[in-house]
Give the backbone structure.
Amino acid sequence: MRAAVVTFPGSNCDRDLRVAMERVFDRPVASLWHAETELPPLDLVGLPGGFSYGDYLRCGAIAARSPIMGEIRRLARRGVAVLGICNGFQILTEAGLLPGALVRNMRLSFVCRPVRIAVATTASPFTNAYAQGQELTLPVAHHDGNYVIDPEGLARLEAEDRIAFRYLDNPNGSTADIAGVLGPQRNVLGMMPHPERACDPLLGGEDGVLLFRSLLAMLT
Amino acid sequence: MATAEITPQELAEHGLTPEEYARIREILGRPPRPVELGIFSVMWSEHCSYKSSRIHLRKFPTEAPWVVCGPGENAGVVDIGDGQVAVFKMESHNHPSFIEPYQGAATGVGGILRDVFTMGARPVAILDALRFGAPDHPRTRHLLAGVVAGIGGYGNCVGVPTVGGETSFHRAYNGNILVNAMCVGIAPRDRVFYARAAGVGNPVVYVGAKTGRDGIHGATMASAEFSEDAEAKRPTVQVGDPFMEKLLIEACLELMASDCIVAIQDMGAAGLTSSSFEMAARGGTGIELDLDAVPLREANMSAYEIMLSESQERMLMVLARGREAEARAVFAKWELDFAIIGRVTDSGRMVVRHRGEVVADVPVAPVSGGSPVYDRPWRLPDPPVPFISDDQTVHLSPREVLLRLLSCPDLASRRWIWEQYDHSVMADTVAGPGGDAAVVRVHGTKKGLALTVDCTPRYCRADPRMGGRQAVAEAYRNLVAVGARPLAITDCLNFGNPERPDIMGQFVGCIEGMAEACRALSFPVVSGNVSLYNETDGQAVLPTPEVGGLGLIEDLAKRTGLAFDADGLHLVLIGEVTGWLGQSVFQREILGREEGAPPPVDLLLEKRHADFVAAQIEAGRLRACHDLADGGLAVAMAEMCLASGRGGRLSVPAEVPSLFGWLYGEDQARYLLAVAPEHLRPLLEEAAAAGVIAREVGVTGGDALIIDGMPPISLEELRRCHEGWLPAWMDGGEGSESGSWR
């Protein structure tokens, strides 16, 4: 398993994601700077949470045009697993790698709390170690996590079984309680909850561990 | 060069007195140039010079074997073992937050973060102590919403968790809210950076955001009373850019891993002026500055504006000569400005040039350390008379009282606030908001830092000395209650106009009380901030000496919290119960009065009880532990039930003189413990042997809180009461139903 996490200016969960991956994968995870355009061979790339470029335009909009994103697009087409969490999810939608968009939370304020979500499909490299319908508790921490998609897009996601997670207590107003979606080839996942913050019993849970374990099983 | 005398009007505009002006003339041997006048104005402002407070601040104990650096630097430093130190400080941003709550609070967070990472520490936690006016005051809701959004907007973006804090309401803050932010960072012990310029010829380097016209004379504003036209001061509030700050943190920490930096200081209040003067003063050097090299956001800024701008997210460094290129590359990577704007000299003078002209040439030491020091007259309030309560005057049942207290503005859940703060980023938050103290793991270890902010302003007003003691004692208890060894405090002393003897009396009394407690508990002050002139139109805030406490948990497996994890545990109350209701929340909310003496704080008892509780935690006997504070025993019990999702029974001894005193009295030095049956006897025996009053007061279990003699209160009802008030009020609901304090 060769994994890396990208740091954009303003990323702030890059270390957390790397630490969680290293803990489950039991091997070093590389750190990539957003300006890089030549990447080492990889099986998994993580786009972490944070406020890339301050999110002063739409969240993720500027990072989606960072030099490294050309390479990430190419890797995604080749089937390499790409995991975007929180700001990473926003970047993936802005980059066109995932459908839909993330807009301001319904209640308009930032929300940080553990939420319950259900695993909506196990047919992906990110979720195969979970049980279908398994209930997880993962923290969310975002201002713009309200997932919107047009009815046709939603119908397509549902028909293709590409909704990875659904909220059981929707914290942000997301369409169809969507907490995470898969790309058309199922190798790209964007999700608002933070699995990397739920990989240690000391921090209130380990429900995120199986996501990384799924990847480990699929990619090695 | 001939310079004109300064007119009395100019002097007044600069907040300087005629006596201070005479002193300036004496130092310079001539009238000051305009830029020099500006420099003296900010450097000798109360905010920067501590001229009214300095002689009293000396009373604090500041040393202990684990203290690496006490007051006087950007932040305090304590040893946490294994070659690491914790760096922490608290600071106020009261005036700006009242004028523009979002930016005021946001830049308060930004400033305190810089104080910590400028010393080489990675910030790991933020806490905030907030004081607002009465809930039914027309501005309160707007101010609270703005301040919370501002703290979140900044802290969430930089990716440092906001893990704790406190919020209270009182009409005395109607015209002058308090926003105190504390930041804690961790650094390698051998890589702490100080702000001492050294090495003649070394370059003085400016990094970070460009300089604009914002915040000019912010420090002077913070040193004067407000009046009705506070709105007109909005242009002196700075605007924060947390993204820039995040880049600055990463760039500075990256450069700090090398040995390029000789000294570093953030540009906070009084901007380039104070940062350059303080670095030169601490190092005993001089500095030459070339303002033409300063990165500017706006064209045609004058030297005066450049020197006094309080634009945010800027740092000043002295680099080792020859390392400029290396340093510049780091800042280029992070897309930040980097400019060499001066040199260190041995002249002992600050020489500032702009457009080919010397605009300031002043000796460093008299400006930086030579401000006038005032021993202002002070008067303590009359000693308060103990309040005698009479249960017969209460027309509510004890059950109604409990529900009323749990939903009153000062005790209702703060969830609405802290859910807007990212408290789990960095993935080391072991205990976030809502407990006695927050607990943050020291990254990569099994150790934790326990953090709390505490003050009970109504106690301080009634009896400043006792209130000062209590603030320190409560912080100590909160740390002990989570299993930490308290190490040190930072403080933020918020008071009214020190030129009034009664306000100065509050200040002196609180400091002396705090100092006594710090000494008795070996809990020194390592950093702090003084905020005076918190008044609007002559109405001062309550004396609010906020205490930020830091403790160390050696092994996180041994920490405790307020949630008990099983039914059938025994509840043991540590400490004496006199039923003290003077200055209690009960007295204010139920009786509609704010009077009498606050509960006395016996420091020997505090120490003895804390040592006992710490030993019981160490022995693994406690399944839960909670400090008793506002609202007393019954409120503490309810909070434990809510945190646990379990009920419990609280028994009331037959012989109590006042039922309300027993349940809601605020006697100090108390803890409520949950103990497994097999540990009860040894615990009680050890308490007896140590001279600690310990008595069994109940048992855990069920889905309701049952207090002897009253109908059970279901957890659901408790939760509804406790959680309901703040969101309902923010949505436009009623302020409060109760009494005199509005």
